Backbone:
């Protein structure tokens, strides 16, 4: 189990789903945790209560990841609340599908803004605060490497972009003792992709272990990368998809 005692983490988009599980797992490992959310203050407050119940400091910051000023403000607020920053987890993401031919410009822009630009800007704002042993963990998707179905083209593209972002930034920050990695979830039971949703059975058939992942499965990989065991892993991807991409 990674020991994150004394570490300070910011997890974006952590009022629900994978982000909430990551925030709680980091706190369980000993970190103080700030989270951002967009539209669910009650759910965010519940996550903060969970962090505090583990004996750690927690804080929730409303910040739309589509808004550059809000992203920068949220990083500064997290640093202020926690007294610094050691770990940034870029988790906030949205999925909007449909054939490219008929996709609306606003949906294409929203995916690019939240799934790509916010990761660039949150990382940029966090870098001056990260020191030796610092960590950036991006949340990609198994679709970043293999698009096994139609109708999810732009979303998949947005996650592929995070691979080169992760690799490039690992080259910039590795010499400063800061690692940058990406975790690729496969089908994971959340509001975005419920295990009992209309799209679930087709995805389940592609997963060799035969079942959806839980948010805690993704959180476990993030906690490992964030901890001392991850110190030699840089610019890498860990796929947590039950074998879908094998
Ligand atoms: P959910 O939709 O269940 O939860 C999304 C979280 O992100 C919520 O906390 C939500 O906050 C927040 N969020 C959404 N939009 C914004 C925004 N504009 N600004 C700030 N916060 C925002 O998603 P998941 O937990 O399933 O997904 C988490 C990450 O994992 C995403 O990057 C997703 O692409 C990726 N992923 C998920 C997979 C899956 O099968 N679930 C598979 C592969 C990748 P609020 O409650 O306020 O709306």
Residues:
């Amino acid at each position: 189990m990674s020991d994150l005692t004394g570490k300070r983490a910011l997890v974006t988009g952590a009022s629900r789903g994978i982000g909430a599980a990551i925030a709680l797992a980091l706190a369980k490992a000993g970190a103080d945790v700030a989270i951002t959310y967009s539209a669910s203050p009650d759910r965010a407050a519940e996550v903060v209560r969970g962090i505090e119940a583990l004996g750690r400091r927690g804080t929730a910051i409303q910040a739309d990841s589509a808004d550059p000023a809000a992203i920068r403000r949220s990083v500064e607020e997290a640093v202020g609340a926690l007294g610094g920053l050691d770990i940034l987890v870029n988790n906030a993401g949205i999925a909007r599908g449909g054939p490219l031919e008929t996709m609306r410009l606003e949906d294409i822009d929203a995916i690019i803004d939240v799934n790509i630009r916010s990761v660039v800007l949150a990382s940029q704002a966090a870098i001056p605060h990260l020191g030796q042993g610092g960590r950036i963990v991006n949340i990609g998707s198994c679709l970043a490497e293999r698009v096994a179905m139609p109708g999810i083209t732009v979303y998949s593209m947005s996650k592929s972009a995070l691979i080169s972002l992760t690799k490039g930034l690992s080259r910039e920050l590795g010499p400063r003792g800061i690692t940058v990695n990406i975790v690729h979830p496969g089908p994971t039971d959340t509001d975005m992709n419920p295990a009992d949703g209309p799209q679930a059975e087709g995805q389940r058939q592609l997963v060799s272990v035969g079942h959806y992942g839980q948010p805690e499965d993704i959180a476990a990989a993030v906690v490992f990368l964030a901890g001392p065991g991850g110190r030699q892993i840089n610019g890498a991807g860990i796929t947590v998809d039950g074998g879908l991409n094998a």
